[in-house]
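Section handout, structural biology tutorial.
Before the tutorial, make sure you can parse a SMILES string by hand: atoms, branches in parentheses, ring closures as digits. In the record below the ligand is zinc ion, and the chain has 444 residues. In the tutorial you will relate the predicted structure tokens back to the input. Do not try to memorize them.
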Amino acid sequence: MTKKHDKLVDLVTPSRPTGPIAHRVKGMKDIQPGAYPAWEFLLQSAGRLARLRGFERIDTPVLESYSLYERSSGRTSDIVTKEMYSFLDKSGERLALRPEATPGIVRAYIEHGWFNLPQPVKTLWYGPLFRRDKPQLGRYRQHYQLNFDIFGEPGPLAEVELIFLIHELLNDWGIEAQIDINSLGCVDCRPNYINELVKYYKEKKHREQLCPDCRKRLIKNPLRLLDCKEPACEALAQGAPQLIDFLCEPCKQHLVKVLEFLDNLGIQYNLNSQLVRGLDYYNRTVFEVVMPSESAQRPLALGGGGRYDQLIESLGGRPTPACGFALGMERLLLYLDPHKVEVSQTRPDVFLAQLGDGPRLKSLQLFEELRQAGLTVHQAFTKNSLKSQLALANQLKVKYALIIGQKELLDGTILLRDMESGSQEVLDLKRVKSIMLKRLAKTK
Ligand SMILES: [Zn+2]
Ligand SMILES: [Zn+2]
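Predicted structure of the complex:
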């Protein structure tokens, strides 16, 4: 069967490529043995806390139409102009590997009529995103995000609920990050501000100092001048007019309410007038979760989000206020407290060790018996040496090991070893299940 199959493959690909072994694509990452417990810990904790607050898990496809992102992220955004993986499929349709989650989630909201569900609709989303940007610390070209969104809530409570959730999550993960907040105003007040901003940057002494990218931004997307990472541009941004001074009355009231609620909840934040986020669709409150920098470098962002009240309408849905945030898994993993992960791991109750063929057979039966009684049992039936089996039991931090050799098998007994104290006792093989259940009930 295998041979036939091989031949077929050879016919299709007459010469197998030779040369150095395949490497992973630049900017991509493998998750290797031993790394998953931390991922699982983050996901489980996020799922649990979000569920308690009424968020429901959803999912969307990795592939979406290119135009979805062009219409939502913004034609001039870095994502669309530089970073998207897009291609024409065989029918000539232009598709993209999703570079961010929100547009797909909004598309699903419109397409399936989630406005018919009781509002607000709160969703939790998790999955990979693809961006062909410069690989940086904790940022890969395929990276994973957790997204939390609230649809149908126009008031400041939506932002407050999301920021409160961030606060709870960070606590659960042992990550001491800072929450930056700003307001981007609305269609009524932002244009006035942008006029002033452009005026400021067009002054000769300012314009001369701008980096080439920012000179382009000045025409296409002036808000982005505020978060350029070039030192000269950063210094200029410090002296630029601040959006907060230009907010219309409703926008100002909205921001004040958000901050008041956060103060009442005892959640610390940092008002950051330079925070603009890189996307066209945000309005009013935007926020970012950053790790305070230890060196002169810019603080590293773990994620962020904001309000996007116009996005649903601009993608063809009925006007619906919405708000959301995303956290980058790989960045979170850099700062996650490893102790929290360790504590979350369930230690196996018992390790079953054996020496010789007869005892191995007996321990196979016993394994099944203990497992059915509800115990978490580990074993290494393929190992012959007792030393290496006990070394594994130690590694797994098991409390008890049960050891059976030829002598015990003949006597109808089994050896119980307390892995912490090293003390051993002989048990009746017939009674081992009930004894173990009693012992473990006591220690749990
Ligand atoms: Zn406004
Ligand atoms: Zn610049």
